[in-house]
Amino acid sequence: MTDNVLDVYRSLPMDVKVTLLERPHGAVPKELVPRLSRLSGTSLAGPAIWLSNPPGSDPGGFTLHGELPDRLEVIRALLDHWWSTLDAEVRDHLVENRNGELDGQYKDAVMCVGDGKPGGLIVAVVQDNKTGRFRLPAIVDVYAEMKARETTTEM
């Protein structure tokens, strides 16, 4: 993703990031359109971000268009694959502790999500030198939040 598109995504509140990661090419909830359209780098008229009224959609509905949803789709696929390789205990721990620090023993599980490719999903973890504890990297945090909401919805 270009820095501009990344900056737009990073600047969004967690609920919006989760919504966009869940369905990158899906309909943007109407209540989010005004908020997203005010962000730097977005435009309802510009070719890079918005496409209004796609064929067969709700009149007045909007979807994201361009680099952001395309990259989010790739990132989501990488995260889905990574998640499927984790033990249930690790997945549960990441979801339960997504808003805090995690024990250093989970670092390798988190680091293996990155593909290390230029333009790909590169994940860095900053660990406390004394305790070894760390926080989830931003995109992994969004994904863990998405998974937590899925679990809550299923109950």
Question: Can you give keywords for this protein?
Answer:
single chain, 155 residues, mainly alpha, 2 domains, 3-stranded antiparallel β-sheet, 7 helices, 46% helix
Distance between the termini: 35 Å
User: Could you tell me the number of beta strands?
Assistant: 3
Shape: globular
Regions with little confidence, pLDDT below 50 for 5+ residues: 43-48
Please tell me the overall pLDDT. Answer: 81
Number of domains: 2
- Strand order, largest beta sheet: 1-3-2
Radius of gyration: 17 Å
Task: Output the structural class.
Answer: mainly alpha
Give, in order, the helices and strands.
HHEHEEHHHH
> Helix fraction?
40-55%
Tally the helices: 7
What portion of the residues fall into strands of 2 or more residues? 5-15%
**Largest sheet, if any?**
3 strands, antiparallel
How does the SSE layout of this entry go?
Layout: H1 3-10, H2 14-22, E1 27-28, H3 33-37, E2 50-52, E3 62-64, H4 67-85, H5 88-96, H6 107-111, H7 138-154
Antiparallel strand pairs: 1-3, 2-3
Can you give me a brief rundown of this structure?
The chain is built from 7 helices and 3 strands. The chain is globular.
Write up what this structure looks like.
The chain is mainly alpha-helical and 155 residues long. The protein has helices at 3-10, 14-22, 33-37, 67-85, 88-96, 107-111, 138-154, and strands at 27-28, 50-52, 62-64. Strands 1-3-2 form a 3-stranded antiparallel sheet, with no helix packed on it. Mean pLDDT is 81; it is low at 43-48. Helix 2 (14-22) packs across helix 7 (138-154) and helix 5 packs across helix 7 (138-154). The protein has 2 domains: 3-67, no CATH class; 86-154, no CATH class. Helices cover 46% and strands 5% of the residues. The N and C termini lie far apart (35 Å).
